[in-house]
From TrEMBL:
<feature type="transmembrane region" description="Helical">
    <location>
        <begin position="41"/>
        <end position="61"/>
    </location>
</feature>
<feature type="transmembrane region" description="Helical">
    <location>
        <begin position="7"/>
        <end position="29"/>
    </location>
</feature>
<protein>
    <submittedName>
        <fullName>Uncharacterized protein</fullName>
    </submittedName>
</protein>
<keyword id="KW-1133">Transmembrane helix</keyword>
<feature type="transmembrane region" description="Helical">
    <location>
        <begin position="95"/>
        <end position="117"/>
    </location>
</feature>
<feature type="transmembrane region" description="Helical">
    <location>
        <begin position="68"/>
        <end position="89"/>
    </location>
</feature>
<feature type="region of interest" description="Disordered">
    <location>
        <begin position="299"/>
        <end position="331"/>
    </location>
</feature>
<keyword id="KW-0472">Membrane</keyword>
<keyword id="KW-0812">Transmembrane</keyword>
<feature type="transmembrane region" description="Helical">
    <location>
        <begin position="124"/>
        <end position="145"/>
    </location>
</feature>
Length: 331
């Protein structure tokens, strides 16, 4: 125990620099090695950057009057972000990596746990009047936004429920589904928005990540709880062929002005880069350039592991990729 206390005493003044190193390492690992989190949509990226910056800068700015309360609030938001990331990764992945702690790299999965615990400890020990209350406000700051998203989700569920199950084809659903923020997210499942850490449930590794959608999905038991998602099986129990294309066609019917694909540069690994080669006619010019680079490495489609670039479906009308994507996260 004495050795442990001495080690912690030695480590404590170095923790701010250690945290910065961990943040860089976790980002780099997600970008170039094993992609756990996809590209956040703009609002989520802004929240992540601002709250993480507040957490990392706290040791140097905590004595700046006025600014310290803003940092405490943002650290409360950061605690919520860490809680979300921890739940998204899941105990089933966090606990086994403890067996391989000596490899260090797998332990990066624990960065959200470590950062969240530090943020809570800082608020608890801060020598500022009302520090805990300000931190708590930050923790709860995203709750009203999630309630708004949940309201839209229930509107969509109610609209779909009005259509008899046997008649829930694309045209019938398109006639009743409201064109809202959540409808765009839910219709973009499988091929555009990443909803589950086990990407087999997504059907692909979709490039965009919106926590508002995921929390609403998690609040409902099961995997196929998205009312706008193409089913895994047809009425006879057979697996639905070309499920991704089915979902993309439905999305295009609901939101013809939105691009079907986005420029996903969030991971430099084969399964993420391979996204560009799936229906290249839907790519933006920049994404198509990336696809050509990728194809130069693997000139034969069958040599690219894990996916097939061929499709039995005729191409959809090309989406106008020159239009700004707005909230769904175009770069």
């Amino acid at each position: 125990m004495k050795r442990l206390r001495r080690f912690l005493h030695w480590l404590r003044p170095l923790m701010p620099y250690f945290n910065i190193g961990l943040a860089i390492a976790a980002y780099g690992a997600n970008e170039h090695c094993v992609q756990g989190f996809c590209q956040p949509v703009p609002w989520a990226a802004g929240v992540l950057l601002a709250s993480t910056a507040a957490f990392l800068l706290w040791p140097w700015l905590k004595h700046v009057a006025g600014l310290n309360y803003l940092l405490l609030f943002l650290m409360g938001v950061h605690f919520t972000v860490c809680l979300y990331c921890t739940y998204f990764i899941g105990p089933s992945q966090l606990l086994p990596v403890l067996l391989f702690f000596f490899l260090l790299f797998p332990m990066l999965l624990w960065v959200p746990v470590l950062f969240g615990a530090q943020a809570a400890r800082r608020a608890w020990t801060a020598e500022l009047a009302g520090a805990k209350a300000v931190f708590a406000l930050g923790v709860l700051a995203l709750v009203p936004v999630q309630c708004w998203a949940e309201y839209q989700y229930r509107e969509i569920e109610a609209a779909v429920a009005r259509v008899p199950p046997a008649q829930r084809h694309r045209a019938a659903l398109a006639a009743v589904v409201p064109r809202t923020y959540m409808a765009e997210r839910l219709a973009g499942a499988l091929f555009k928005y990443h909803n589950y850490p086990e990407f087999i449930f997504d059907g692909w590794r979709p490039p965009l990540h919106d926590p508002l959608v995921n929390v609403s999905l998690w609040a409902r038991s099961g995997v196929d709880v998205n009312p706008l998602q193409a089913p895994w099986q047809d009425s006879t129990g057979k697996e639905v062929a070309n499920r991704l294309e089915e979902q993309a066609r439905f999305y295009h019917l609901l939101f013809p002005e939105r691009p079907l694909k986005v420029d996903c540069a969030c991971a430099q690994i084969w399964d993420a880069e391979g996204y560009y080669d799936w229906h290249r006619d839907w790519n933006s010019p920049e994404a198509d350039r990336r696809a050509r680079i990728w194809r130069s490495r693997f000139p034969e489609p069958d040599r690219v592991p894990g996916y097939d670039v061929r499709s039995t479906y005729p191409p959809l009308p090309p989406a106008d990729s020159s239009k700004p994507e707005g909230s769904p996260g175009r770069r």
